[in-house]
Amino acid sequence: MRLLLIRHGDPDYRLDSLTEQGFREAKAFAACADELGIDELCVSPLGRARDTARFTAEKLGMRPTELDWLREFPAVIDLDACPQELRQAYGEHTFTEFRGAKRILWDMLPGYLAAHPELLDPEGWKRSDAAKHSDILAVWEHVTGEFERFLAERGYVREGAVFRVEHPNRRTAALFCHFGVSCALLAWLMNASPFLLWHAGCMQPSSLTELVTEEREEGLAVFRMLRFGDTSHLSRAGLRPSFAARFCETFDEPNERH
Fold it and tell me: Which terminus of the chain has fewer Cβ atoms in its 10 Å neighbourhood, N or C?
C-alpha cells in the first residue's frame, strides 16, 4: 500500500483558500498526478486543501472523499491558563486562524523546545507542561485513532510498532491535507514525537510526501517514507516553492516571517 500526503498550495488563510501562487502550484501538481497511480483521493474539509485537490480530482476523473480528521491538527493552548515560561514560548506570533490568548500548540519558539527535551521523547511529550495545559492528548487520540481505522479498513492493522497484514494491497491513497496533521500522522507511523517533525521538518506548499509498506516478513508490515516534502512538480512547471512554510533564514531579515 502507498500513502501520499499532499500539503495544500500556498494559502490565503483569510479566505481559507489559495493565493494566485497556490492555484498555480495546485495545477502543477495535477499536471503530474497521472504518474502517481492514485486509486483514491481523500481531502481535508478546509477550503485550502479542497481547492488544491480539485484540479487533481478533475484530471483523474475522481471524486474526493472528505475526511474531517484530515483538517489542520487542531490542538490549541490557552495562554491565559498556562505557566509564564510556557506562555513566553509563543512570543508575539499568532497562527492566523486564532486570535487572543489561543495559539496552535506546536507553533512554539525553538528555545523552549531546546529547554524541554521531553517534548522530543516518543512518550515524554505526552507528560509535558504543553500537553497538560492544552487539548493535544484528546486531539492526538482522535486523529490517530481515525487514521488507524482508515488503515485497518485497507488491510493494515496496527499491532505495537508494526502492522498485521490482513489484506495486502498495492493501492495508492492520496490525502490532501496540511502540514501539522501530516506530521502527526507520520510521527504515529514512526513511533516518534510529533514535535520532532513539526520543528525539524518542512513541507512546502503543494509538496508530496510518499510512504509505502514493506512486508519483509509475511504478515507483518511497516510504512517506510520514500520522500518527504517533494516539490519536483513545481520545478517541472518552472515554479519556485513559496516561502509560506518557512521562517526567516537569518533573524535580521525583516521581509521573512519570524
Answer: C
Residue 70: DSSP 8-state? G
CB 134 within 8 A of CB 86: no
In order along its 258 residues, the chain shows pLDDT tens digits of 999 999 999 999 999 999 999 999 999 999 999 999 999 999 999 999 999 999 999 999 999 999 999 999 989 998 888 888 998 898 765 444 555 568 889 989 999 999 999 999 999 999 999 999 999 999 999 999 999 999 999 999 999 999 999 999 999 999 999 999 999 999 999 999 999 999 999 999 999 999 999 999 999 999 999 999 999 999 999 999 999 889 899 988 888 887
| The CATH number, out of the four listed (3.40.190.10, 3.90.550.10, 3.40.50.1240, 3.30.1340.10), of the domain defined by the range 2-72+140-236 | 3.40.50.1240
Sequence spans of domains, the chain:
2-72+140-236, 76-132
